[in-house]
């Protein structure tokens, strides 16, 4: 797998600086730009251009090795990718066990515009083939179940059937998995999660090597007004500068925590692609550079799950994931089709032994 050059990424802007220019990225907080005469390709209005998010997109494009456009949230990125690729009469396929808001978007909005929506579980996603689908939306690993599908085979089969593929790569980031390199047409990501990493912003991006698709996505953003704020773009840019370090720590710690949880008597089931016995393990070995920082566990009942989360001093009981602080939540509370005692745990950047001691103490107290 071709890994992005993160060291080069840190100096993309610096190597183009002139004498006296600031090393840190300036924050351009302006809706208007000085524009006498004709525009001539200059920045001209805050809904269309902003130097801060243009440089952020330069960094994101380096990470994805593809043109990128930034958005004010992960769902704004998902919406842009779908609205840029479907029309009345289109038929789309989405995972029934993926992120539930993507399903809501398809069910409550796209279906009302004449788009036919079909759902399949990740583990049986290819069952029935892909003939007749204009867009196939995939999630691997699925959120929250962590099931995986063969992205290269799926991309090849969908293309042969005349459709395009969109992959949500939020859980893995470009450092852990590279869907575009595997033949996927479009990647979307919620950069609110690990890309930003500090739980202080909402952002997302769309990447594609298909010039026509990325042009449609840009047109959607410009006309719909689904643009990122410059301050959020500045924060995400700063977060990306430590992504390599954070992602390495989080994935390494998740492996240790998962192995120890798998041996704990209070844990009924555990899912983590890095465990040799996990159903996703073989595919993850072939398809990803790392096994990720997310794991799931199921305890005895809902009360035990709540007590474990709320009593653990180094787990924040919060939705979302990918931050420097480890967090956990019962996904059934949002309507996911999972056991009431099912927990999604996002491993952060705490020292792994200190984190394990807190997790173990909370489990032992049940």
Task: Give a written overview of the molecule.
- With 366 residues, the chain is α/β, with parallel strands linked by helices.
- It has 2 domains: 6-16 and 24-240, Aspartate Aminotransferase, domain 2 (3-Layer(aba) Sandwich), CATH 3.40.640; 243-364, Aspartate Aminotransferase, domain 1, CATH 3.90.1150.10.
- The chain has helices at residues 6-10, 51-64, 74-83, 100-110, 151-160, 173-176, 211-224, 230-240, 243-261, 281-287, 302-311, 352-364; strands at 68-71, 91-95, 116-120, 135-139, 164-168, 186-190, 204-208, 269-271, 294-298, 316-317, 327-330, 342-346.
- The chain has a 7-stranded mixed beta sheet, sandwiched between helices. It has a 5-stranded mixed beta sheet with strand order 8-9-12-11-10, covered by helices on one side.
- The longest helix has 19 residues, at 243-261.
């Amino acid at each position: 797998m071709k890994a992005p050059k993160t060291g080069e990424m840190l100096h993309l802007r610096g190597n183009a600086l002139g004498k006296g220019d600031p090393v840190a990225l300036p924050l351009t907080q302006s809706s208007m730009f000085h524009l006498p005469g004709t525009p001539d390709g200059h920045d001209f209005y805050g809904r269309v251009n902003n130097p801060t998010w243009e440089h952020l997109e330069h960094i994101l494009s380096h990470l994805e090795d593809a043109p990128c456009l930034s958005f004010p949230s992960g769902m704004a990125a998902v919406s842009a990718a779908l609205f840029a690729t479907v029309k009345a009469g289109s038929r789309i396929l989405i995972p029934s066990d993926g992120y539930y808001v993507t399903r809501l978007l398809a069910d409550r909005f796209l279906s009302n515009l004449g788009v036919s929506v079909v759902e399949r579980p990740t583990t049986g996603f290819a069952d029935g083939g892909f003939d007749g689908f204009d867009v196939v939306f995939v999630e691997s690993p699925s959120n929250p179940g962590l099931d995986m599908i063969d992205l290269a085979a799926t991309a090849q089969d969908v293309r042969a059937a005349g459709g395009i593929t969109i992959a949500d790569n939020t859980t893995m980031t470009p450092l852990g998995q590279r869907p575009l390199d595997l033949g996927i047409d479009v990647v979307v990501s919620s950069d609110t999660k690990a890309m930003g990493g500090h739980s202080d912003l909402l952002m997302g991006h769309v990447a594609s090597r298909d010039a026509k698709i990325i042009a449609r996505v840009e047109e959607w953003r410009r006309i719909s007004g689904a643009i990122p704020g410059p301050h959020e773009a500045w924060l995400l840019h700063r977060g990306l500068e430590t992504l390599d370090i954070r992602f390495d720590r989080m994935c390494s710690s998740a492996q240790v925590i998962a192995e120890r949880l798998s041996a704990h008597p209070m844990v009924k089931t555990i899912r983590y692609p890095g465990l040799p016995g996990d159903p996703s393990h073989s595919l993850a070995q072939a398809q990803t550079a790392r096994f990720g920082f997310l794991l799931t566990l199921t305890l005895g009942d809902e009360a035990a799950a709540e007590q474990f989360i709320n009593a653990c001093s180094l787990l924040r009981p919060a939705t979302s994931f990918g931050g420097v602080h480890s967090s956990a939540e019962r996904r059934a509370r949002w309507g996911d089709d999972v056991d009431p005692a099912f927990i999604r745990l996002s491993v952060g950047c705490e020292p792994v032994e200190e984190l394990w001691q807190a997790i173990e103490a909370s489990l032992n107290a049940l």
